[in-house]
Structure formats: C-alpha cells, structure tokens
Amino acid sequence: MASAGFFKHPIQAESLTLVKPGQIDDRATLTAEGIVLTADVQLADAAIQLLANTPQALIAAPGAGRAILVHSLYIYLARPTNSYDDAASDGNFNLKYADGSNGSAGLTFEADAFIDAGTSTGRFFAGSYDYVAGAALVITPVANKAVQLDNNGAEFTSAADTTANTLSMRIRYTVIDVAAFS
Fold first, then answer.
1. Which residues of the chain are modeled with pLDDT < 70?
2. CATH number at residue 78
3. What's the order of all strands across the beta sheet hosting 121-126?
4. Is the CB of residue 2 less than 8 Å from the CB of residue 59?
5. Does pTM top 0.90 for this prediction?
C-alpha cells in the first residue's frame, strides 16, 4: 500500500495555512508543491513475476494540471526462499508514467544481477538517470499520470517456489504544477 509521507495525499496540504509550528490560521498559505513526499510500496511474488505485462502503480496520479517528479528510489528484494531467473528477460526496470506512452518518469536500471542474485539485496538510485545507458534523462513531466514500475523485458520466472519473496520500494518525489508559476 502506498503512502504519501506526512500528508495522506499531497493536494490535501493546499487548504492549510501556517502561522507557527502546531498552529493553523488564515494568514499564510502552506502548499504541497515543492515538498518532498515519500511513497512506500511492496510487491508480492506474483506481481514481481508479471511486471513485464502488468506494470505496478507506485504513486497515484496527482490531479489535473499537476505532475510527479521522482527524486530517488530505494528498492529491496527480500528472498527468504529462491531467486528468480531473468535469462529470458534481460530486462530493465523503468519508472514510467502510467499509460506507458509518455516515457520515463525518472529512472531506468538493470534488472539483471539484481532480480536473480542469490541473496536478498537492495539498491539506491538518485536523480533522473538511465543507469543502463549511463546518461542523464531529460524528463517531460506529464500531467495527472500515476508513476509505475515496469520490466521492459520478458517476465521473470523461477523453477522453484518464490512465493515468500517481496520487492519493497521507497520513492521520494515532488508534485508540481505543469504550467510554470500557475
């Protein structure tokens, strides 16, 4: 289940006003824009294996005229049982805007040696970067689109029982207005 850090949903913060810590008043406006939010998401085994055909939502769409900018991702694959096989996949993980046609939402990284490692493992990724190509990504924010995790190769498989495996992610992001200074 995803959470958005301090606020249940980033847009809820827009109606608050702040006078001093712990006191709400109508003299100054607190806005969610620019606040770094956190989404924690955990995928079970079935969702991990089906990522190529069924991308998983990580951050809900922020609403009309607003877009999500991803700053960082910590991803941890817990393997209390068996590892996956990505031999047929050779895919990369991508954070993408929901309909898939809008390109990257900020990160692309190699799934090989992560998804099929013999032990539980974690990775941290920062910035808008293609860790496969070794180049910065230029992000075009897309209004009102969720961010999802996708495997751009074939499905991950396993010859052994992987039902206890989980993929946990902590995503740091900001919600912005897509029109400058609107």
1. 1-34, 86-90, 100-103, 159, 180-182
2. 2.60.120
3. 37-44, 166-177, 66-78, 121-126
4. yes
5. no
Per-residue b/e over 57-80, b at no fewer than 16 CB within 10 Å? ebbbbbeeebbbbbbbbebebebe
Tell me the residue range of the domain where 129 lies. 38-174
Residue 155 confidence (pLDDT): 77
Residue 42: both structure tokens together: 């955990």
Tell me if 27 sits within 8 A of 132, measured CB to CB.
Answer: no
Q: Domain count for the chain, please give it.
A: 1
Distance CA 81, CA 16 (A): 47
**CA distances (Å), 42 to each of 35, 69, 73, in order?**
23, 20, 13
CA distance 7 to 38: 9
Find, among 78, 83, 82, 86, the residue nearest to 112 by Cα. 86
- What tokens were used for 18? 């702040």
Residue whose tokens read 């499905």: 155
Torsion of CA 135, 110, 151, 116, to 10 degrees: 180
Count the neighbouring beta carbons within 10 Å of the beta carbon of residue 49. Answer: 20
In a domain, 180, yes or no: no
